[in-house]
Write a structure and sequence with these properties.
Blueprint lengths: L14 E12 L6 E12 L3 E5 L6 H8 L7 E6 L2 E2 L5 H11 E4 L11 H11 L4 H14 L15 H13 L5 E5 L7 H18 L2 E5 L3 H4 L4 E6 L2 E7 L13
Parallel strand pairs: 3-8, 3-9, 6-7, 7-8
Antiparallel strand pairs: 1-2, 1-4, 4-5, 9-10
The structure holds adenosine-5'-diphosphate and magnesium ion.
């Protein structure tokens, strides 16, 4: 079966992410757990996709496979034209660091250093010079509207502000794809909408590809496509055309 696409013209060469009948079985316990069970999906550069489905349906597993934090145990995954299975661990880590930025439900910030220092940290690991680090941190904090708060430490910030710091930390590596696992899951609906407004701007104005997992239909409606997921499989998709009215407030 050809991967489900938002486009009718879908040539594989133009697609950033192409999954062909991808499986991920966990074999940690006595009984194997098939978390992803035959997913065929393609995502082009510039898309804003939301994966929705019940708890335990394999959404995080799928996102981790897409982000190369985990490997498929079956099927085929090509990322920017590269076959993921054929890559060694170092090459996979290199492509992951170059292509992806990650945001999680829990913000995972270091509490004792400032917001700006949290954002800078991945660049220090990467060995970038101080001038370039400073430029990128400033630009990432500006993208999330937090430039004036850079000197605050995470405990001094609200949940929404902490998530914005985490988004800036993901952006600072200048990724092509932002992967977000329930980014508004710990936030109230108004703050969640603020986060989605940032995603929308990053996607619309900077062309950043965004793939998020969300339980919120109103969050999903900020994107361009919803992939419905259940029992490790894609069960349906909705594509929003640019002219289609956005159902604001739905699903809160
Ligand atoms: N590291 C792991 N080892 C074993 N089983 C796991 C692991 N991670 C997730 N699972 C199992 O895989 C299934 C899908 O989990 P997950 O991808 O986290 O779903 P979701 O994000 O949709 O809640 C669940 O049954 C879960 O218990
Ligand atoms: Mg999950």
């Amino acid at each position: 079966m050809a991967p489900a696409s938002s486009r009718s013209d879908g040539g594989v060469g133009r697609d950033l992410i192409v999954l062909w009948d991808v499986h991920r079985v966990y074999r940690t316990g006595n009984v194997p757990v098939p978390a992803v069970r035959g997913v065929s999906l393609d995502i082009a550069a510039g898309e804003f996709v939301t994966i929705m489905g019940p708890s335990g349906s394999g959404k995080s597993t799928l996102l981790n496979v897409i982000g190369c934090l985990d490997r498929p145990t079956g099927g085929r995954y090509t990322l920017a034209g590269n076959d993921v299975q054929g890559m060694g661990d170092r090459e996979l880590a290199r492509i992951r660091n170059r292509l992806f930025g990650f945001v999680f439900q829990t913000f995972n910030l270091l509490p004792r250093i400032s917001a700006a220092q949290n954002v800078e940290l991945p660049l220090i690991y990467r060995g970038l010079g101080a001038l370039e680090r400073h430029r990128r941190v400033k630009s990432a904090l500006r993208d999330v509207g937090l430039e004036p708060r850079g000197n605050h430490r995470p405990p001094q910030l609200s949940g929404g502000e902490q998530q914005r710091v985490a988004i800036a930390r993901a952006l600072v590596g200048e990724p092509r794809v932002l992967l977000a696992d329930e980014p508004t899951g710990n936030l109230d609906s108004v703050t969640g909408e603020e986060i989605m407004a940032i995603f929308r701007t990053l996607n619309g104005e900077q062309g950043l590809t965004i793939i998020q997992v969300s339980h919120s239909l109103s969050a999903a409606h900020h994107g361009k496509r919803i992939v419905h997921f259940r029992d490790g499989m894609v069960t349906g998709q909705e594509v929003f055309s640019p002219s289609a009215p956005v159902l604001s407030g739905a699903g809160r």
